[in-house]
Write a structure and sequence with these properties.
Blueprint: H1 3-16, H2 18-27, E1 32-37, H3 43-54, E2 57-62, E3 75-76, H4 79-84, H5 89-104, E4 106-112, H6 118-124, E5 131-137, E6 139-140, E7 143-144, E8 149-151, E9 153-155, E10 159-160, H7 162-177, H8 184-196, E11 199-201, E12 209-215, E13 224-228, H9 229-232, E14 234-241, H10 247-259, E15 266-270, E16 278-282
Parallel strand pairs: 3-10, 9-11, 14-15
Antiparallel strand pairs: 1-5, 2-4, 2-13, 4-12, 5-14, 6-7, 8-12, 15-16
Helix pairs in contact: 1-2, 7-8
Length: 283
């Protein structure tokens, strides 16, 4: 998502509500997204990943497990500005703690719009030993079902947002106190925050990332969990084996492809007469 698309999203969010804004966001999603998966010499860990595919699920992780030390830090609070506006030390603490709690209840799963990014194969598929899952973003009629899929916003600036988070905190406290359903205003804030949770520095732009975002019921130490693809609005349609994927693992992936009537298994191979380029080849 670029800055113009983000501005349009916020315009629709402010004027037409979160449902129309989500519909616009969904219109920006590609037809296919790809999940890079590592494999190694650990047979048990490999089997867990194979079983996740067979169960039509994806693994969603806590943000604490992500490899970017600046994950979820696109948003920040200027405490000196808050003090100048009359916030007490206790109120500043509550705003900070509320935001940290929201981060702890978020589960993420990362995808790319491209299955042929060399650094991605190296970093996320264990030096090309793993595989890449091809998912179709499902559409029924004119409705895109990717409500939980968010395009990553790449930026070089952070967002000062104490007023926004404080308003979110106050609205949530009010709704909980009087046992009220979420208001349109609160839902707009949540939609806004999920986009912020999908902001990263420009240096990661080569990943062309999209994220599936879920909220847990409560903050805890759970590192993640499996979520059904159907709930996410995606369907696995194919598997791409990495260039260094072992023959044994290729046989396992081929068996999965045939069992679930996916596209024929392909493997990344070197492209003739091209330097530093791989391409999917039918096995």
């Amino acid at each position: 998502m670029n800055n113009l698309e983000l501005e349009e999203y916020y315009r629709i969010l402010d004027t037409n509500g979160y449902q129309c804004a989500d519909a616009y966001k969904n219109s920006l999603l590609p037809q296919y997204i790809y999940k890079y998966v590592p494999l190694s010499d650990d047979i048990d860990e490999n089997e867990k990943r194979f079983k996740t595919v067979e169960k039509h699920s994806i693994w969603c992780s806590s943000c604490t497990t992500y490899n970017d030390p600046f994950e979820f830090k696109a948003l920040y609070f200027d405490e000196e500005k808050m003090k100048s506006e009359g916030y007490t030390a206790k109120q500043i603490h509550y705003v900070n703690e509320f935001y940290e709690q929201q981060k702890r209840i978020i589960l993420l799963s990362s995808f790319s719009a491209d299955c042929n990014i060399m650094p991605m194969w190296a970093h996320y598929s264990n030096n090309h030993q793993g595989f890449c899952l091809k998912y179709e973003v499902k559409v029924i009629g004119n409705r895109n079902l990717g409500d939980k899929i968010y395009p990553v916003l790449y930026t070089d600036t952070r967002i000062e947002a104490h007023s926004f988070v404080n308003n979110w905190f106050s609205a949530l406290i009010y709704a909980n106190r009087y046992d009220l359903p979420p208001t349109q205003g609160l839902l707009k804030m949540i939609s806004h925050m999920y986009l912020i949770f999908s902001a990263k520095h420009f240096s990661w732009a080569y990943e062309n990332e999209f994220r599936i975002i879920f909220s847990k019921e409560r903050a805890n130490d759970i590192r993640g969990g499996n979520i059904k693809c159907q709930v996410c609005g995606i369907e696995n349609v194919g598997i791409i084996a990495g260039y260094n994927c072992s023959k044994e693992n290729i046989r396992r992936l081929n068996s999965i492809s045939k069992s679930f009537l996916l596209e024929p298994l392909v493997q990344m191979k070197t492209v003739e007469d091209e330097f530093f380029q791989l391409g999917p080849t039918t096995i």
